[in-house]
Amino acid sequence: MSLHYLPPVKPSAIALGTIFNHTTELAIMTPLFGQTYQRAKAANSKEEFIRSKEASSAAVVWGTSLVGSALQSYGVGALINATGTLSYKGAAYLGGLIFAASNAPRFLNELLVEKRSLETVGVNVLAKLFETVGLSMFLTWWGTRTNPFEYSSASTGTPLSRNPFRSE
Known about the structure:
mainly alpha
């Protein structure tokens, strides 16, 4: 596979989207970091804390969340570019579709099969809506196209409607 098949996304959009998404993830993971902070206060030395299970698990969670946030930011930015989304309404629809495809089945399972409380599932739904709908609207506001004038003509259609193998 060649890299030219991957849609280009403005690097600043990926960086800001990563920060936006990572902040949302950290809000969910606050209890884990709170336990880690309590362990750091109780440790006799820095070396003891660094070798602790809490410190290593917190570092792994933080690192994977950061990488996942960057990948999600690129993916949403690439979808915005590939679909030619220019409005906030379109971005909200796109984020809603991403949410429905990636998270809705899990939340239905948590409510109906696992019988988790509505409050717990509701907080997780709200966080994931920020990560999908909020991220797509934020990236639309910031701009994701490396060349913003590339899709400005209404006569050329959306990027998905252009087929390089079609003769026009």
